[in-house]
């Protein structure tokens, strides 16, 4: 893969939305495909996008580079599962140039960890310093049930590879009532032993997921926090990663725990991010349907003028906040697209 060299240079005026928020964090879903089928994320028989609709690696590189010129300081690759995208190693290697040049503060990814034994070394060499690995349980049988067929030992081997490669790891665990709520203390302890931070995520009402009723899975993180307090001393800290998580430090382990509570806590006022799907659709808010197509302007010409114009126009439409609600009257998806389309 060759980098889009014609569009490489020259910082442009930063992206500021109508509410004065500087948009400097881009999350890019590089594929909607995945090697797992987590019950809260996908139906078992997902229909994936035709490959022709998905941005090529060159286009992904080009659009990311345009965002870097527009002031993006943090780039997160996600999916679907980013590491199942063919050629992902080359894309990450190529995007690493923006970290090396100092244009990006951070290049990172969110992964299910199944391919980390293969990719941990490459990630580290490409300038990736931290990764988020999603793992909701330490029980292999439960892991298989949640992911429908995943292998926990494979992910654990991947986590070891990540540590050996010098990557900092944060574990993401979706809090699921009646599924992993008996394991939270053990997970805090385990992450403490391994040197990992841990973030709990509330289930979000996104996409039709088939048989599992979302209302039954929903567990407010206020309850998780209250449970953790029974055993651990949670010190409030200021730490922010540019994302919506609020963090505490566990005095006993020295490690952080984050809480992502999109439903019970409104974090929109400090939102600095936008999300790009693998087909080149830019969502200005995770919880709203409004979006802008960047693929057409990108494909219309070799220089980035139309693309940059489309991005700027989209940012003028970034909404003030989102409308997620799960309650008894409204237990269907607030947003019909799956998390694997926009990336978590
Ligand atoms: N496949 C990668 C992974 O699992 O980390 C990256 C994509 S995944 C969509 C990103 C994150 O979204 C994961 O941490 C996953 O647990 C979370 N997620 C997926 N569906 C969700 C939902 N309905 N509510 C809350 N979190 C969800
Ligand atoms: Fe795949 Fe990640 Fe969704 Fe699980 S959460 S099905 S690993 S995209």
Give the terminus-to-terminus CA distance.
Answer: 26 Å
Named CATH topology: TIM Barrel
The largest β sheet comes out as: 12 strands, mixed
CATH secondary-structure class: Alpha Beta
The structure class reads: alpha/beta
Strand order of the largest sheet: 7-8-9-6-5-4-3-2-1-10-11-12
Gross CATH architecture: Alpha-Beta Barrel
For CATH, the homologous superfamily is named as Aldolase class I
Contiguous runs where pLDDT drops below 50 for at least 5 residues? 2-6, 325-331
Shape by Cα distribution: globular
Task: Give the strand content.
Answer: 15-25%
Q: Can you describe this structure?
A:
- With 344 residues, the protein is an alpha/beta fold.
- It has eleven helices and twelve strands.
- It has a single domain, classed as Aldolase class I (TIM Barrel, Alpha-Beta Barrel), CATH 3.20.20.70.
- It is 30% helix and 17% strand.
- The longest helix is centred in the N-terminal third of the chain and has 13 residues, at 57-69.
- It is globular.
- Mean pLDDT is 89; it is low at 2-6 and 325-331.
- The structure holds S-adenosylmethionine (SAM) and iron/sulfur cluster (SF4).
- The site of S-adenosylmethionine has 20 residues, from strand 3, strand 5 and helix 11.
- S-adenosylmethionine binds next to strand 3, strand 5 and helix 11.
Spell out the blueprint of helices and strands:
Blueprint: E1 25-29, H1 57-69, E2 74-78, H2 88-100, E3 106-111, H3 116-125, E4 130-134, H4 140-147, H5 152-164, E5 168-175, H6 184-194, E6 197-202, H7 214-217, H8 221-229, E7 234-236, E8 246-250, E9 256-260, E10 273-276, E11 281-283, E12 291-293, H9 295-300, H10 305-315, H11 339-342
Parallel strand pairs: 1-2, 1-10, 2-3, 3-4, 4-5, 5-6, 6-9
Antiparallel strand pairs: 7-8, 8-9, 10-11, 11-12
The structure holds S-adenosylmethionine and iron/sulfur cluster.
């Amino acid at each position: 893969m060759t980098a889009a060299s014609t569009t490489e240079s020259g910082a442009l005026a930063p992206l500021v939305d109508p509410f004065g928020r500087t948009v400097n964090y881009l999350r890019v879903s590089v594929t909607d495909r995945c090697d797992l089928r987590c019950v809260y994320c996908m139906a078992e028989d997902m229909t994936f996008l035709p490959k022709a609709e998905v941005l090529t690696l060159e286009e992904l590189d080009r659009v990311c580079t345009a965002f870097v010129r527009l002031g993006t300081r943090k780039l997160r690759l996600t999916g679907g599962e980013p590491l199942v995208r063919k050629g992902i190693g080359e894309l990450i290697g190529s995007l690493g140039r923006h970290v090396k040049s100092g244009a990006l503060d951070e290049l990172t990814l969110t992964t299910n960890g199944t391919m980390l034994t293969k990719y941990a070394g490459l990630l580290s060499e490409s300038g990736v310093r931290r990764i988020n690995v999603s793992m909701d349980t330490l029980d292999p049988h439960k892991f298989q049930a949640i992911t429908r067929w995943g292998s926990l030992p494979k992910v654990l081997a991947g986590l070891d590879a990540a540590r050996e490669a010098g990557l900092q790891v944060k574990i993401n665990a979706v809090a699921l009532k009646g599924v992993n709520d008996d394991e939270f203390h053990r997970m805090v302890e385990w992450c403490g032993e391994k040197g990992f931070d841990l973030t709990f995520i509330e289930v979000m009402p996104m996409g039709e997921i088939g048989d599992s009723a979302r209302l039954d899975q929903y567990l407010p993180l206020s309850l998780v926090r209250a449970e953790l307090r029974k055993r651990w001393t949670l010190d409030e800290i200021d730490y922010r990663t540019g994302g919506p998580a609020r963090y505490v430090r566990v005095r006993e382990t020295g490690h952080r725990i984050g809480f992502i509570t999109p439903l019970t806590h409104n974090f929109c006022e400090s939102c600095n991010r936008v999300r790009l799907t693998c087909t080149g659709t830019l969502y200005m808010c995770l919880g709203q349907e409004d979006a802008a197509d960047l693929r057409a302007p990108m494909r219309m010409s070799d220089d980035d003028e139309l693309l940059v114009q489309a991005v700027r126009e989209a940012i003028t439409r970034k909404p003030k906040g989102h409308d997620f609600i799960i309650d008894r009257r409204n237990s269907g998806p607030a947003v019909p697209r799956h998390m694997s389309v926009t990336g978590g």
